C-alpha cells in the first residue's frame, strides 16, 4: 500500500483535469459522512457546487444542504444520477442494492461509481447494475468529518488508474489515502475503520489514570488526547517503526519502562491485536451477508 497526502505535479494536472471532465457529480446519501465529503470537495474546488446533485431521505435536510453549500439537493436518486458521470454512494450497506435497482436504467453506462458503503464489494455493484461498471470502493473512518481521516481505496474489475486517482483526489480532501487490493478491505475495516473506537477507549483510560492521580478531568483528557495525536504524527512524519520511537522515550531505569511492564503484564498488545482480528472477522461476515 502507498499513502499519499501531497499532490505531485501529475496529480495536480489530474486535479485540474477533474474540474473539466466531471460534468455532474451525484452524491447519494448526504448524511454526516456524505456532507463531510461534499464540504471537502467544494473546499478543494475540485468540482464546483453548480455541478453537484445530492440526495437525502427528507426534504428539510435537502433544503439545509442547498442553503449551506449551494448545491442541488433533493430526495430523488433517479434525478440525481441522470446525466451524472461521477456517482458517490454514501449509503448504509443495506440500502445499496435497492438504490442500484432503482437507478440502473437512469444511470449512464460510462459513469464512475465510488462507493463508501461499508461491506459492499465492487463485485456487488457490478453485478447489480448488470454491465461492466467502473467502480471504486472506499473505506473511510470517522475522523474524515474533521479532515483527518484514513481512507483506503480499491478499484473494481473495470475501473482505470485514472478513476482511482480521481477517488484519491476526492477523499484526499478528508485526510490520508492509501490504495489496497480489495481482498484486504475486511482487515482494513477492522483496523482503521473500527480503530477510532479503540483509540477513544485508550484516551479514556489514560485520562482516568490522570484523574486517579489528582489531575482535573478536562486537563487529563487534553493531555491524553494530544499525546496520542502527537505520537501518531511522529510515526507518520519520521517513517520510523513504532518500536524504535518507543525506545527513544524509554530511558534505562526510568519511569516509562515501569509503565510498559504494566501494559505487557496486562496484555494490552495481545488484546489490541485480538480486537482488530475480531472486528475484521465480523466485517467479513457482513460482507458475505450483504453481497449474497
Termini distance? 28 Å
Q: Uncertain runs with pLDDT below 50, 5 residues or more?
A: none
Q: How are the strands of the biggest sheet laid out side by side?
A: 1-9-8-7-6-5-2-3-4
**How many helical stretches?**
13
- The percentage of residues in β strands lies in 5-15%
The portion of residues assigned to helices is 55-70%
Describe the sheet with the most strands: 9 strands, mixed
Radius of gyration: 21 Å
| Main structural class | alpha/beta
Mean pLDDT: 92
Helix and strand pattern? EHEHEHEHEHEHEEHEHHHHHH
Shape: elongated
DSSP summary, beta strand count: 9
How would you describe what is shown here?
The protein has helices at residues 9-21, 32-43, 59-69, 77-81, 93-103, 122-129, 161-172, 185-193, 195-212, 217-238, 242-249, 255-266, 268-290, and strands at 2-4, 25-28, 52-55, 72-74, 86-89, 112-115, 134-139, 149-155, 175-179. The chain has 292 residues and is an alpha/beta fold. It has a nine-stranded mixed β-sheet with strand order 1-9-8-7-6-5-2-3-4, with helices on both faces. Helix 7 (161-172) links the parallel strand 8 and strand 9 (175-179). Helix 1 packs across helix 7 (161-172), helix 5 packs parallel to helix 6 (122-129) and helix 9 packs across helix 10.
